[in-house]
Amino acid sequence: MSTTKNAAAQALAGDADIPAAQRLALYRMQYVIRVCEKRAHDLFLQNLVKGTTHLAHGQEAVAAGFAAAMNPDDYSFCTYRGHHHTLARGVGMLPVLGELMGRQCGLMKGKGGSMHLTSVEHGVMGSYAIVGAHLAIAAGAAWSAQYRGTQQVAAAFFGDGATNIGAFHESLNLAAVWKLPVVFVCENNRYMEYTPIREVTAVEHPAADRAAGYGLPRIVIDGNDADVVYRTAREVFAKARAGGGPSLVECLTYRHGGHSRADPAKYRPKEEVEAWMKRDPIVLYRARLLAAGVAEAQLAAIEAETMRTLDEATEQAKGSPPPALESALTDVWADGGASWRN
Amino acid sequence: MAQLSYRDAVAAGIAQEMRRDQRVVLFGEDIAAAEGVFKTTVGLLEEFGPRRVRDTPISELAILGAAMGAAMTGLKPVAEIMFSDFLACCWDYVANQIAKTRYMSDGQVSIPLVIRTANGAGVRFGAQHSQSVENWAMAVPGLKVVAPSNAADAKGLLAAAIRDPDPVLFFEHKGLLAGKAEVPDGEHVEPLGQAKVLRRGNDVTLIALAAMVPCALKAADALVREGIAATVVDVRCLVPLDARTLLAEAARTGRVFTVEENPRLCGWGAEIASIIHEECFSALKQPVVRITTPHVPLPAADRLEDSVLPSPERVASEVRRALGK
């Protein structure tokens, strides 16, 4: 299969396959993610976000493109760098920021934190902070969908670093053998955490070059182009829904910041950063929309409205009380409690 | 009542639940066509077919990860980890994912699954296929922990575990698989979290789990011939723990012995001893005595393995020593 070629061909052939409204939605979502991640960063500097954050600014196109191709009842499984996928499935900025700030208004009322954003009603089945673990969990959700005879697809998003952990390989094999409707999406941002992925991986493309080992096609795409991502996502989801089994997609992208709050990312060559900043997915997409005839004012309106929502969410989150202390002792068990003895 | 072996009772418990609930699926290494390396899944592929009874690759991470994902999305998976020692391969799923996700998600996610695994020593398999690791699971909030000592409980507690809305680790003891016992006919479900008093005596209380239950019963038989009457309590579930029954039986005799297959440090008996000391100290005539495996990996040779595991003789001698006899 040559998804890369197909996508490139479609991009050259024109944009007719993606309706204008969809493209505006893709732009809006990328913008939402960008400004929300920046706000999370600012709130951290103000000591309002505690612990750590793993921001995804620079990787917005992957999240926006895949989420746009999903049905409401499809499942997303994210990593600790998962704010972007959570927002992309339609979770509001208020519950996300509230969770980062440990407030009652948070998505999980402060019980999970930045690394574990979960919103089942939006299909966000969790953000997993042990590298690679959720690939197998996504496979299980896909198995459940297959067993129940639904058309649901599970998508697992992970970084390049996850391709060297055992769960990646076990999950791909099981998904391929059982032909599960699951899509494994590698966001290759070139750094496993602080270390360049190429220095610790035997192949050039850490995900795609392993696909053959599981009988899957090699798919490498431009992860900074939301249209390319969206088209690819439509293809692999359609294949999964048709019973064609799993796909492994490697999206080439770049993390604009460090691994986490503790990391200023000084190990990255200046030229590399500059080159990738020129390929900022939001700058590129904005230019494309303008070139396609979208009015500057229309984009400015989307941006202004997003900023208003973000500012409101920020103030609301700041004003939200901390969680009730009793909640620390709830929801260990299905009965809502934490009791382990009589 | 029918006489069933422990291993057949496991299969009967799974079959009973698979008949009543289409959401129950069974999978693991060699459990379908081969019917389990311990023959605890005999007949299940034939009755329920390959869609519900599935062989997996040797991929403990994928097995438990898939079980979790399926449980989160509407199924009730029963996953087998062939030997409990192999839980170390997939402990991330047990301790970090399955146990914690309900809590971290503020109750959004339910994970109703059972992890069945062959636990325990006495079959000369050496240090990596013989451990009793139920105490590992007990240390993690969010996991229920069950370890039956006989065929009736193997069926009844397994059925309850499958019906339970929370994740349950179900430890099947390798040394007990061949043992037969009366198992109630028809639907049989034993509630989780209830210890069982198997015999009553007024001199000492022996608290045991899994294969240590028959060990304690044999010790009690020997002691009664010497005029020492022992109560024997089968803990059955470590989580939820029936502390009330344990405390009552401890207070009644004032002399308590835990009989554990775990190595010494942080075996389950330590937690129970702690509860008894804290909550019924005044009723005790002596400190709780823990009878455990010494803090060593398990040796393979029969002579060596037998020497380190608690035996009826060792239990009886510890009791005599405590009583000054």
Structural class of chain B: alpha/beta
Kindly report the name of the CATH homologous superfamily of chain A.
Answer: Thiamin diphosphate (ThDP)-binding fold, Pyr/PP domains
Low-confidence stretches of chain B: none
Looking at the structure, the CATH topology of the largest domain in chain B is Rossmann fold
CATH class of chain A: Alpha Beta
Level-1 CATH class name of the largest domain in chain B = Alpha Beta
The greatest interface between two protein chains, and residues involved on each side, is:
A-B, 51 and 50 residues
What is the count of helical runs of chain A? 11
In what order do the strands lie side by side in the largest sheet of chain B? 3-2-4-5-7-6-12
Largest sheet of chain A: 6 strands, parallel
Order of helices and strands of chain A: HHHEHHEHEHEEHEHHH
Can you count the beta strands of chain A?
6
Give the low-pLDDT segments of chain A.
7-13
Task: Name the shape of chain A in a single word.
Answer: globular
Which homologous superfamily in CATH is the superfamily of the largest domain in chain B?
A: Thiamin diphosphate (ThDP)-binding fold, Pyr/PP domains
Task: Name the strands of the widest sheet of chain A in spatial order.
Answer: 2-1-3-4-6-5
